[in-house]
Amino acid sequence: MQIHWKPEAIVLEPTNMELQQKLKTTSETLSVAEGAAKYTTATIRKTAMLYQQTNETFTHVVHASSSVAAKPELIYNRRIVQQIGLSPIEIVQSNKIRIELYKFNPGDYRAYAMKIKLKEPSAMKMALEGTVPGTAVTTMQAVQHTGAVAGINAGGFADMGGKRYPLSTTIQNGKYINGFEPSFKDLSFVGINETGQLIGGKFSSQSQLDSLKPSFGATFVPVLIQNGMKTKIPDQWITSPYRAPRTIIGNYKDDQLLVVVVDGYNENGSSGASLPELQDKLYNLGVYNAYNLDGGGSASLILNGRVVNTPSDGALRPVPTHFLFFK
To answer: Is the pLDDT of residue 3 over 50?
Structure first.
């Protein structure tokens, strides 16, 4: 007889000593993990505190740097106001522009000046009225059509066939309206570049003007101050006429603009200001560049919906170009 015996698996229960050893090992592992967790938590807390302290220090440095950087600008602006020697009679302020209106009355003439800080290039534009060449409107109409807060007349013009065309080189939205014309005789171009800075002068080639990246601009005569130096005023513009209503645009070294509009009751030379007088005035005010714009009956200054100056024609004259300012 054969006996078939099938072995069965024998399960050995761990001894009490082995269980204690495992519990000890597990306890030690948990202790190590707990220590690591406490260390990690403390490290994270320290890192967070260090980050907060560093961020606060950085913010303080940024604010301090901004304050220091702004001081020269504030000092320079204070110097400009001191040179003007007057308090503004009206202020327009927004996140795009700041306009301060002043009134000059030195005795020989009466004038208004706007000191303008363009905080954005879009705060100043040029109006070239109408899609049909030869169209002209008053500065008030240009202001109303565009929603501008202020405006002045800009370049000269030529009348032909009952229409009024802008004089010589004129640029709108970076494009030449009637092509480029090299500066001839005493004419000069004045406008604003893509970054909102005043540019101007005489240009013999288009590439020379294009290098300044003009956004818009117009032409008249003459240049009064360039790069902080008085320029020679052509004789015929000193005497023809000697006194007249005037519009002038200039800038300071910090790129703030100064617009001056002089009152006069006619264009025959007996009222208004002479160009040498205005050149001296602007130079003494610290203006770095200054350009004479169209004057006489064209001289116009609009602010907050009203005509500030007294037009010599008795009413505003329609002209083809206007420099406008926006809030």
So the answer is: no
- pLDDT tens per residue, range 174-219: 999 999 999 998 999 999 999 999 999 999 999 999 999 999 999 9
Band of pLDDT at residue 55, cut at 50, 70 and 90:
low
Angle CA 173–176–182, to nearest 5 = 135
pLDDT digits (tens, 9 = 90+) for 105-149: 888 999 999 999 999 999 999 999 766 789 999 999 999 999 999
- Cα separations in angstroms, 292 against 97, 131, 199, 218, 275: 23, 27, 13, 11, 8
Return the CA Rg of the chain.
Answer: 37
Q: What distance separates the 2 farthest-apart alpha carbons in the chain?
A: 153
Question: What does the pLDDT average to over 247-271?
Answer: 95
List, in sequence order, the alpha helices (H) in 85-130: none
- How many Cα atoms are found within 13 Å in the side-chain-facing hemisphere of 64? 6
Residues in contact with 169: Cβ distance below 8 Å, sequence separation at least 6, in sequence order: 176, 180, 181, 183, 189, 203, 209, 217, 219
Q: Which residues contact residue 326 at a Cβ distance below 8 angstroms, ignoring those fewer than 6 apart?
A: 96, 97, 122, 123, 124, 125, 146, 147, 148, 149
Residue 299: helix, strand or coil by DSSP? Answer: coil
- Fill in the DSSP letter of residue 12: P
- Taking alpha carbons only, the member of 280, 86, 302, 287 closest to residue 200 is 287
Place of tokens 């320079």: 76
Among 67-81, 111-125, 141-155, 233-247, the range scoring the smallest mean pLDDT is 67-81
CA atoms of 204 and 188, how far apart (whole Å): 10
Query: Where do runs of H (alpha helix) occur along 91-240?
Result: 139-146, 206-210, 235-239
- Rounded CA separation 309/295 (Å): 12
